[in-house]
Design goal:
Elements (H helix, E strand, L loop, with lengths): L1 H23 L4 H7 L5 E9 L8 E7 L5 E4 L2 E2 L4 E8 L4 E8 L9 E4 L4 E7 L23 E8 L8 E7 L5 E4 L2 E2 L4 E7 L8 E9 L2 E13 L7 E7 L2 E5 L11 E8 L2 E11 L5 E4 L4 E6 L7 E9 L10 E4 L3 E4 L1 E2 L6 H7 L7 E4 L3 E7 L5 E7 L8 E4 L1 E2 L4 E7 L6 E8 L2 E5 L14 E2 L24 E5 L1 H5 L12 H5 L12 H8 L3 E4 L3 E3 L18 E7 L10 H17 L3 E6 L11 H5 L28 H17 L4 E4 L7 H14 L4 E4 L26 E3 L1 H8 L18 H8 L18 E3 L9 H8 L5 H16 L4 E5 L19 H4 L3 H6 L1 H16 L8 H7 E4 L5 E7 L9 E7 L5 E4 L6 E5 L11 E2 L3 E4 L3 E6 L2
Parallel strand pairs: 1-8, 9-16, 18-25, 35-36, 35-44, 36-39, 39-40, 40-41, 41-42, 42-43, 43-44
Antiparallel strand pairs: 1-5, 2-3, 2-6, 4-5, 6-7, 9-13, 10-11, 10-14, 12-13, 14-15, 16-17, 18-19, 19-22, 20-23, 21-22, 23-24, 26-27, 27-31, 28-29, 28-32, 30-31, 32-33, 32-34, 37-38, 45-46, 46-47, 47-52, 48-51, 49-50, 49-52
Helix pairs in contact: 9-10, 11-12, 13-14, 14-17
Length: 971
């Protein structure tokens, strides 16, 4: 314990002295180390214990914090199990990983390794979501213990300034001491550490520090680092270098070559220049070629003194972003200057924003025109292919157009032409699919010219009648889920055409597929992503593959795996339109789930290849923002990204005749973009619904600009999922065993009341809904556990009958509350995914709609149908304004764990007419007083519901059965 106390004291002293050192030293080594995060190496070791020893196809997907992911194999084995040792370029404080197969079957979710000393090591067991820093279950790490240590530490400083630098070192759980660098060799300086009379020591700790008279901790490099690899006699030899946190056991791995780490255009007259070790700014020796002259070189890191490793090169004139500039420095070499932060400046947007409506290809029988936005490219070509399989095509140079565009025209009829774009950025060529491509080849790897008129069903573009948002009852569905069950009775399984099949039946003659949805009575079908996404291989559709599709690849073309022939670009378009048309003919509107907030990979995306650094959001340190949790956030606040989103949504609405858009992780976007989306759709059809996940996400955007619930009041006509009522009904989705109103959590009545009122009176720190059309009222969705699975987790001791009652109570509250009602497909027959809370790539056995279960739960389905009829039949459940809600809903006195309210006057001025709604979440019958004596017509009783009377209540009170809803009509 004494050693621990000493080291804690040292840490406090070092923090204080480090702050002083920043102001009084020529340059801060600590700051220098932090700036060199782009240099050096990071090593991670992942131990994995599989459940059955079968490791075929299993690997680890590793992603440095703020960086892109990559698959690495398990290459070793130890007593614990399989092992992967991975070297990453750059130094990182945290590295994420996923244990998975190439088809994205996962063992657990995202896990993270904290890096110390340039290394991180963890242990993972199959089926266990924990990530261990030591072997779990008493399986001790195979590290020998020593009674004496003899360690030689070699230290290299780029600046060759070793005066005062020494080591503070300590044995594991022991007391620290100072050790000087007393030796010198070709690497640099060296120190020998000898310790004896130790007990059970497995590692040796050290800190590199600088001592001056009166202050032993004037500066330091990094914090605690540990030597962990020793020979049998307790000896070890290690190498460390200034600015690199990694401990090396092989000196040949240490990179001591002076080099330029970074040279990027960050402003129209500004280049950021960075090296891997400091130099004198006054004698910088930097030169620039490519037609630009240097006006001034200044330090970029706010360090005191003249020495730094990062400067700003200020040029005399504006830089031409299409030019190739090279920067050099004596002994450091020469590099091409990359386009950097300049593309993320307002000046760039103002200079290059293109307002035309002809981006992509414009087809006619006489000619096809192409226009590409790529303002940082020095050259651009149209690449034409004869087949989707061709690796090399014919290239046609494009001509420079206005405001950063490139254009070209092909005379004649080029319907079906397969193409891509190539652009030269700096000294490199990038090839990419046209972001505006409306048709693509198999797996979306090339674009195609399409005659869209040939893909339309008859009378397709006639829109459905205007619709009021509050009248919507949305049914969220995955295309594949609907039809894959063996007893679905649907022929085109997993396809757009499967959704369009009519009059299908399943077990015991129950209606399935489209017929079931129509019979249920919902108004809108919301489809999980149906644009072209990455993770399903369209060339292997004979093999089972599943994904929700939240990994966008080509935003303006349908997903090929849902078509009967993904190799022919027109087929997926025709079949998707046929699906929409058939749903419309069955009086069902169609909402498309759109995922503009991120792409499957920033580096591989067509956006990044064509205009690097522009379309994505970045942190201050230059790493990709990751509020989405998938490695990148798009930057909707930039003019051309905003334009793309607005035009893409408008295209889908007009070309596919869609009736709504659900924005995934809408809180990543900005308010202005969402308002422009709403404005553009209003011009097409004001009754098109816009809804989204208004979560407050950690992305570098001003909080007042985020399109989340807190800013809902700034976005008229845009609805947000209300997680307030969701979690108050069943418990938090982030805590498996947390309960809510229906499953036994006390004191939730007030939260339920606010949810019933569509959250219009929530505190502004939670949401600022102005009207009920801005609120999606729901209890389950494709994300997280289904309601049935959640109830099994929170109430494992309860009977199936009790859980059914809880489930029906929750659904009845959704359908008798204000706002827009939302149901997850299968919720009507209490869908289960076997406890899988994140089934985004789970097999069909987990995700498919179980039509046998629908037959087994027919009574529950009938109850849901009755509730839908009840909602549709009574405008009181679908009020249009917050003022109406406040005026017409009056909550009544009620026992604990019950909620009762009076809908006075059916939301009109005749206050003699009432609807009374009573929810009882107790496991016993409760007596509730009514606002006036009967007669009251019973429209719902917990078992049945609808618009026809199920009975009459005459007195001033009513007995409400356990875990049930009663709706009374006082007419």
């Amino acid at each position: 314990m004494a050693g621990i106390k000493i080291r804690r004291f040292v840490s406090l002293v070092s923090i204080f002295t480090l702050l002083i050192g920043i102001f009084f030293s020529f340059y801060s080594v600590q700051s220098f180390a932090e700036m060199n995060s782009a240099t050096g190496k990071t090593k991670v070791i992942i131990h994995y214990k599989p459940s059955d020893g079968n490791m075929k196809d299993w690997n680890v997907w590793v992603f440095p914090e703020g960086g892109e992911g990559k698959a690495y194999p398990f290459t070793g084995e130890d007593k614990f199990g399989k092992m992967a040792e991975i070297e990453l370029d750059g130094t990182y404080k945290k590295v994420g990983f996923i244990v998975r197969t190439d088809s994205w079957e996962k063992d657990g979710g995202d896990r993270f390794i904290d890096i110390t000393g340039g290394e991180g090591e963890v242990w993972v067991k199959s089926g266990d979501d924990n990530t261990y820093t030591e072997p779990p279950d008493g399986e001790y790490r195979d590290l020998p213990a020593f009674e004496k240590l003899n360690v030689k530490v070699h230290y290299f400083r780029y600046d060759n300034q070793y005066d005062g630098w020494n080591l503070w070192t300590w044995p594991e759980n022991g007391e620290g001491k100072a050790v000087q660098f007393t030796e010198e060799d070709e690497f640099g300086k060296a120190a020998s550490i000898q310790m004896e009379n130790l007990k059970d020591v497995h590692k040796l700790g050290f800190i590199v520090r600088k001592s001056i008279p009166g202050n032993d901790w004037a500066e330091k490099e990094f914090n605690d680092r540990y030597v962990t690899k020793f020979k049998e006699d307790g000896s070890a030899e290690v190498w460390i270098a200034q600015g690199q946190q990694r401990i090396y056991y092989d000196k040949d791995l240490v990179d001591r070559t002076p080099k330029i780490v970074k040279a990027s255009i960050d402003g129209f007259r500004e280049i950021t220049f960075e090296t891997n070790f400091p130099f004198d700014v006054k004698e910088h020796g930097i030169s620039l070629t490519g037609g630009a002259s240097i006006k001034q070189v200044v330090s970029a890191d706010n360090q005191a003194g003249d020495f730094t490793n990062k400067v700003k090169i200020i040029t005399a004139n504006d830089l031409d972003l299409t030019n190739v500039y090279k920067v050099s420095k004596k002994n450091f070499g020469e590099v091409v200057v990359q386009t950097g932060k300049v593309v993320r400046t307002p000046e760039f947007d103002n200079k290059f924003f293109y307002g035309g409506d002809d981006l992509g290809n414009s087809y006619s029988k006489k000619e096809t025109k192409f226009r590409l936005w790529a303002p940082t490219a020095s050259e651009a070509n149209l690449v034409m292919y004869k087949s989707w399989q061709d690796e090399k095509g014919t290239e046609l140079p494009l001509k420079k157009g206005k405001r950063g565009t490139w254009k070209g025209t092909l005379k004649g009829n080029h319907e079906g032409l397969i193409y891509t774009y190539k652009v030269k950025i700096g000294d490199q060529w990038n090839e990419a699919v046209d972001p505006y491509a409306r048709a693509v080849t198999v797996n979306g790897q090339k674009g195609a010219v399409i005659n869209l008129d040939k893909t339309d069903p008859k009378h397709f573009h006639k829109r459905m009648k205007a619709f009021t948002p509050e009248d919507a009852i949305i049914y969220e569905l995955h295309v594949r889920d609907l039809s894959m069950h063996p007893k679905s009775g649907i022929k085109n399984k997993g396809k757009f055409l499967g959704v369009a099949e009519e009059n299908t039946t399943g077990p015991e003659g129950v209606k399935t597929g489209l017929s079931h949805i129509r019979d249920l009575g919902v108004t809108h079908v919301q489809l999980l992503p149906i644009y072209d996404y990455k993770t399903v291989d369209e060339t292997r559709l004979d093999q089972p593959q599943f994904n929700w599709g939240y990994d966008p690849q080509n935003y303006n073309a349908p997903e090929g795996s849902y078509s009967t022939d993904p190799y022919r670009p027109a087929v997926r378009i025709k079949e998707m339109k046929q699906m929409v048309n058939t749903l419309h003919h069955n009086n069902l509107r169609v909402i498309m789930d759109v995922v503009y907030n991120h792409m499957f990979s920033a580096d591989e995306s067509n956006f990044q290849k064509l205009v690097p650094g522009y379309y994505f959001r970045y942190n201050e340190d230059g790493t990709l923002a990751n509020g989405t949790g998938v490695g990148n956030d798009t930057a909707s606040e930039r003019k051309m990204m905003r334009k793309f989103i607005v035009e893409s949504v408008s295209y889908w609405a007009k070309e596919y005749n869609l009736d709504g858009f659900r924005f995934d992780l809408m809180g990543i976007h900005d308010v202005e973009t969402m308002n422009q989306v709403r404005k553009a759709l209003n011009k097409i059809d004001p009754s098109i619904i816009v809804l989204g996940e208004g979560w407050d996400l950690n992305t570098p955007l001003d909080p007042s600009l985020k399109a989340n619930q807190k800013n809902a009041g700034k976005m008229n006509g845009i609805a947000h999922f209300n997680d307030g009522i969701r979690d108050s009904l069943k418990g938090s989705v982030f805590e498996d065993t947390d309960k809510g109103f229906v499953n036994g959590k006390p004191d939730t009545e007030e939260a339920i009341k606010e949810g019933i009122k569509a959250g219009i009176d929530y505190p502004s720190t939670m949401a600022t809904y102005k009207d009920p059309e801005q609120v999606i009222t729901y209890v389950e969705a494709h994300d997280n556990h289904t309601l049935w699975d959640k109830l099994q987790l929170t109430n494992p001791e309860s009977s199936v009958d009790t859980r059914k009652k809880m489930h029906k109570l929750a659904s009845s509250i959704i359908l008798t509350s204000q706002g827009i009602s939302f149901l997850h497909a299968g919720q009507e027959f209490m869908r289960t995914k076997g406890g899988d809370h994140n089934s985004y790539k789970s097999p069909d056995a987990v995700n498919q709609l179980d039509w046998q279960r629908r037959a087994d739960f027919s009574k529950e389905v009938d109850y849901m149908k009755g509730l839908i009829k009840l909602r549709k039949g009574h405008p009181a459940f679908r009020m249009r304004t917050a003022a109406d809600i406040r005026s017409h809903i009056e909550f009544l006195p009620a026992p604990k764990n019950t909620v009762a309210y009076d809908l006075k006057g059916h939301a009109n001025k005749d206050r003699s007419k009432d609807l009374v709604v009573l929810y009882n979440a107790n496991t016993s019958v409760q007596t509730i007083s009514l606002p006036k004596p009967g007669p009251w017509r019973v429209l719902a009783n917990g078992e049945e519901a609808g618009n026809k009377p199920l009975g009459i209540v005459m007195g001033k009170t009513v007995k409400v059965p356990a875990l049930s809803t009663i709706v009374l009509d006082g007419r």
